[in-house]
Amino acid sequence: MRFEGDPSRDHVPDAEKYADLGGEIERVLEEASEAGEPLSESELADRHERWMQGQNLDLGERLRQSSEAIKEFVVNHFPLILGASAEAATVVKNFLDSNLSLQGKIAETALATVAIGIVTAVAEWARRGGYPRLEHGKWVQPEA
Amino acid sequence: MTYQDFFTDLIRKRCPTLAEEKARQYAAEFSGIVLLRFLDQELSQSDEALKREAEAELEKGRILEAYQVVTESLGEEELRTRLQKIATPLLEDYVRSILVG
């Protein structure tokens, strides 16, 4: 996630109250001051970027992975979902538990979109006389 | 001295040629990471709606607004106390691995 915050303002409300981060501040400040040669701007930029990435909190990346996970899930479990078995319910529940808590509202929106797609597809398949089966990794349409 | 002033000064001590605006941008990004970590680690399932609202603001790059959402919900004192538990080790790590290391 790239934070494009406005550098002209403080991003923490009532920031004066957050300025005291504890006794470690003086020590780390001292270490930084005594740390030899100044960093170049490019080196600092590289280190900053690596650190940001290393936090593993890239929301955009997490959401992208969520979309991929949803796609994989639907592709792999369509027949199971349509079968509406107890096993299917467990698979769906486990998937939702592991993804919704992490991905939040956007994943919910994506899942809602998927759900609408499934309902639409079922209606269409009913009109055609049945839904496709997954055979040897390929969807096979019912015979008309 | 504000939180962002402090962070900006810290960065510029190690890179004096860096423009203040750029240093403040790094400080803003650090603040965003602190809040993201806070949302992940400190909020319980009962705070899920708050977490989503704050994450939605962060996703749009609206860091101040994300902080305000959390502040309005938890109150300044509680947020300050809980935020420091997250911010202090992160700041130490940032200083050690980027400014000192």
Task: Summarize the model shown.
Chain A is mostly helical and 144 residues long. Chain A contains five helices and two strands, in the order H-H-H-H-H-E-E. The model of chain A has no long low-confidence stretch (mean pLDDT 60).
Secondary structure topology:
The complex is a heterodimer of chains A (about 140) and B (about 100).
Chain A: H1 24-33, H2 41-54, H3 59-83, H4 86-103, H5 105-128, E1 133-135, E2 138-140
Antiparallel strand pairs in A: 1-2
Helix pairs in contact in A: 3-4, 3-5
Chain B: H1 3-14, H2 20-42, H3 48-59, H4 63-74, H5 76-100
Helix pairs in contact in B: 1-2, 2-3, 2-5, 3-4, 4-5
Which labels suit this protein?
heterodimer, A: 5 helices, B: mainly alpha, 83% helix
Question: Would you write up a description of this structure?
Answer:
The complex is a heterodimer of chains A (144) and B (101). Chain A has 5 helices and 2 strands. Chain A is mainly alpha-helical. In chain A, a hairpin with a 2-residue loop joins strand 1 and strand 2. The longest helix of chain A is centred in the middle third of the chain and has 25 residues. The model of chain A has no long low-confidence stretch (mean pLDDT 60). With 101 residues, chain B is an all-alpha fold. In chain B, 83% of the residues lie in helices and 0% in strands. The longest helix of chain B has 25 residues.
